[in-house]
Amino acid sequence: MANYLSLEFARSGPMLLAEARGKGRWATAERVLKTLKPEQVVDEVKNAGLRGRGGAWFPAGIKWSFMPKEPKGPSYLVINADEGEPGTFKDRQIMEKDPHLLLEGIAIACFAMRAETCFVYVRGEYLSSVVALETAIAECEQAGLLGDDALGTGRRVRVLVHRGAGAYICGEETALLNSLEGRRGEPRAKPPFPAVYGAFGRPTTVNNVETIANVPFILERGVPWFRSMGTQGAPGNILYGISGAVENPGIYEGPLGMTARAVIDQLAGGVKAGRKVRAFIPGGASTGFLPPGKLDVVMDPDALKKEGTMLGTGGIVVIPEEVALLDALRVLSRFFRHETCGQCAPCREGAAWSDQIVGRFQRGEGSGDDFALLNDIMRGSKQRTICVFPEAFAGPLGSALLHFKGDFERRIVSHGTAVHG
Amino acid sequence: MAELTIDGRKVEVPAGTNLIEAARKLAIDVPYYCYHPALAPVGSCRMCQVEIVDPGRPPRMVIACKTEATQGLNVSTTGKDCVAARAATLEFLLANHPLDCPICDKAGECDLQNFSYLHGHGVGRFTEPKRQLLKHELIGDHILLDQERCILCTRCVRFMGEYAKAPQLVVAGRGDRNVIATFPGERMHSNYEGNLADICPVGALTLKEFRFKSRVWDLDSEESVCTLCDRNCSVTLDTKRNRLLRARPRKNPKVNGWFMCDVGRFGLLDHCNPSGREEGGFVKGARVAPDSAVNALADALLADRGRWLVVLSPRLTCEEILLARTVLGPLARALVHVPVAAEGGDAILFTGRRAANARALELLGIDPISAEDLAHVAVEAATAGVLSFDSVALATLQGKAKLKRAALVDVWRRGDAADAAAPLGVEFFVPGTLFTEKAGSFVNCDSRLQRAARVQRPPQGILGEAGLLQELARRTGDPARNGADPTALVLAALGQEPLTLLQLPEEGLAVAAAAEARPA
Q1: Which of A8, B15, B214, B388 is deepest in the core (most CB within 10 A)?
Q2: CATH number, domain with residue B56
Q3: C-alpha to C-alpha distance for B173 and A155, rounded to whole angstroms
Q4: In sequence order, what are the residues at sequence separation of 6 or more whose Cβ sits closer than 8 angstroms to the Cβ of residue B396?
Q5: Cβ of B61 under 8 Å from any chain A Cβ?
Q6: Does B10 touch chain A (CB under 8 A)?
Q7: CATH architecture of A17-227
Q8: Which residues in chain A have Cβ-Cβ distances shorter than 8 Å to B46?
């Protein structure tokens, strides 16, 4: 099946407006805004089965339908371009190479949700994404595609770029909203959900960059076309990000539902010559480690859920034999300890404590009692906090304990109930 | 209204009440740290987890502080999972806690201790090095911060922003590097800082003024009011060996909500533990025992019946004011008081009017008189002398009027600003009592009468204001007050049901229409 999202990724810089229009960008938005009703757009996205590519895979059309139909005051669209999940680097490709694709999707989504303003919250380190977006926005305002009279429809569509300040947690949608408002980037307790009380207290929908980039194609080519790709439960293509011990690490477009092995072999040139896979991460750091025996798992949100993990952002990391799994785990446990916002006690203390314990194992100072303790730390924090951060740090930790317990057992010194591997 | 079931018992609460308050109505204590009834809930400490039980479904864990009571809701605070969740939360909170309870001022009234006993594991499994952070850092005018003890509930941060309107505390850092902090290099400045030590559920924020003064279980605690302005905040006074060591606000939705100001909290310590207090009486420049001074003054008052001008103090209790009206009314040329102007009040609690019982003087019909008029009346031929219960009012006469005779009944401390009223400058001085040295009542600016307990003994021999008034009553044979409860007499005089002091409701009693325009 043909690719559509990544066609411009080979270029060295952003595609400017003149060229983008030549490639059909903005034509769909113009037709949609001039001929359709907002509900028709929402229905089309709903029927296409487009699910959010930010990691949670929530149906986008359903999310849109939560927005008020007759808003009293402003509603907002917020684009989550914070892209902080280790192993994930897909959204920057869209912003840096094909910014008009995102902007066209934004115009359509704003129309569908009756929002006049869209904030694009861009990861602070993504300076080139910010420059590309701001250039494209200026071009669009100049050309009358965005602004007070977007596409000559009399509707206002205003896009504002906001740079993050380097916190992973700000990729969580309500922490992102707090950060956008100038507050500490801490997730908000829900309810109320953003569609009721979002940015600046107004109805808000937060969508991932890649999700919105799919929207113009769905409206251009139709539901059957979109559903002809991917799986029944998750149609469409996805941008797989592959890093680690593969021949050609990078971003590759492919349908949802490929096996991890196929993604590695067919898209990324296979495992690096002479290396063997020790473990792989299916969809970004928080999805945890899987052993090589699971390489034939299907890259589909529901299939991976059955495996006890997640598709996440589709960022696959291949870990070769010569990397000690505990070292890989420590990198991630340290990362999550560093990035928990720390407002909820179980997460703040649990992320730090488990990192300290993993550190002890890494130094060969583990104890047999630590297994029960690590499990209690995860049990005491998962589903016990405002957001799902404990699930994120428990992803690598829990999967390592499940699939690679021997790596821990070999690092036990103290006796007690210790098991020696 | 919503009727719900908590632990098998039904309770009806207004819809929207959170589950902590709904459970409280059944006397079921849901433990919490970050929640505070006076602050916006954040739901981050995870201590108040309870279970929602829907038939045919596994119990659903929620945080009670942010879950609203709805009709038919079935809540369990004792389910296996929420008990385990609370124990887990406590283990997390205690992991890095220094456990320095033996040297912590909060010990004995600390929710980390209390909940550990009630909901914790009893053993610690944390063997890693603990965080080492700031200990006893002075972050305001009164507050010491111990970052190691802090459990980051953020009540303090929200209090300073939401209530004190002085958002000078923040959470700095991220994750397990989170700490409570002020702006770098700055300290807090607010009239409401002291409340932080009360709302801090652990020993992270403590009072400089109470540091190492006492274990809290050694304190004697009594309910009273603060008398340093006419808000009369409800307080609990903590004393030890006749010294006031701490004043804390006592919840009273009708007066002060949950809090009190620093002028009152720390001013009371000074007010009630006066240094250089004159404990003897004076008659014509000679130091005498207090009872001799009472007798000499009583003689002088009775010798010149109808010719003494009596100035009452807005710091007397209602009972003293009424007794003065009864006894001195017929004896004096006039009974007056000098109204006190508000100075430096704020829009929160502190009114700035340092006249706790001014409203009672008004309600009991004591005539106001300006300081200027007082100076005139004091030297009129019909005036034999001035008897003042108010050293401040007497001091205003300094340099304005050459008094024929003067008497002062008040607490006087050497070096007071009101030096003009020094015992040696008046003919008679009878040492008065502090409000904490007598039981009585006060009426605040909104006409609410509250009880003030006797929590201190006056120095040996001091008979106080009541001593003089009772001596006069004995000599004049006033029959009206025989055996009657003084507070009941006050309430009767105000047209209220005559309750005794101990019958007064905890929140006090509205004795007149609230807050009419007061004389300037």
Answers
A1: B388
A2: 3.10.20.740
A3: 42
A4: B338, B371, B374, B375
A5: yes
A6: no
A7: 3-Layer(aba) Sandwich (3.40)
A8: 344-346, 384-385
Distance from CA of A353 to the nearest CA of B (A): 8
Write the ipTM.
Answer: 0.92
CA distance A377 to A388: 14
Query: Is B337 in contact with B363 (CB distance < 8 Å)?
Result: no
pLDDT at B416: 61
> pLDDT tens across B324-382, in order?
999 999 999 999 999 999 999 999 999 999 999 999 999 999 999 999 999 999 999 99
> Would you list the DSSP string of B326-362?
HHHTTTEEEEEE-PPPP-S--SSS------TTHHHHH
DSSP bridge pairs for A150? A155
pLDDT 10s digits, B92-138:
999 999 999 999 999 999 999 999 999 998 888 999 999 999 999 99
- Cβ contacts from A onto B, under 8 A: 98
Q: What percentage of chain B has pLDDT greater than the value 90? A: 87
pLDDT digits (tens, 9 = 90+) for B204-221: 999 999 999 999 999 999
pLDDT higher than 50, residue B203? yes
Q: Give the count of beta carbons closer than 10 Å to the beta carbon of residue B343.
A: 10
| Residue B419 confidence (pLDDT) | 52
User: Which of the four pLDDT bands, split at 50, 70 and 90, describes residue B520?
Assistant: very low
- Calpha distance B211→B106 (Å, rounded): 10
* Model confidence at B519: pLDDT above 50: no
Within 10 angstroms of residue B130's Cβ, the number of other Cβ atoms is: 12
- Residues of chain A predicted below pLDDT 50: 416-421
Which option is the CATH number for A252-320: 3.30.1300.10, 2.20.25.110, 3.10.20.600, 3.40.47.10?
3.10.20.600
- pLDDT category, B484, cuts 50, 70, 90? confident
B124 touches chain A (CB under 8 A): no
Tally of domains within chain B: 3
Cβ distance B88 to A343 less than 8 Å, yes or no, reads no
For residue B67, the distance in angstroms to the closest alpha carbon of chain A comes to 9
B141 lies in the same domain as B26 = no
Classify B398 as helix, strand or coil: coil
Q: What CA–CA distance (Å, rounded) separates A192 from A195? A: 8
| B236 DSSP assignment | E
Distance from CA of A91 to the nearest CA of B (A): 26
Rg (CA), chain A: 22
Give the model confidence (pLDDT) of B133-191 as tens digits.
Answer: 999 999 999 999 999 999 999 999 999 999 999 999 999 999 999 999 999 999 999 99
Helix, coil or strand: residue B514: coil
The verdict on residue B229 lying in a domain is no
SS3 state at B136: coil
Q: At what angle do helices B111-119 and B80-95 cross, to 10 degrees?
A: 140
What residue in B sits closest to A352 (Cα-Cα)? B176
Q: What pLDDT, on the 0 to 100 scale, is given for residue A414?
A: 57
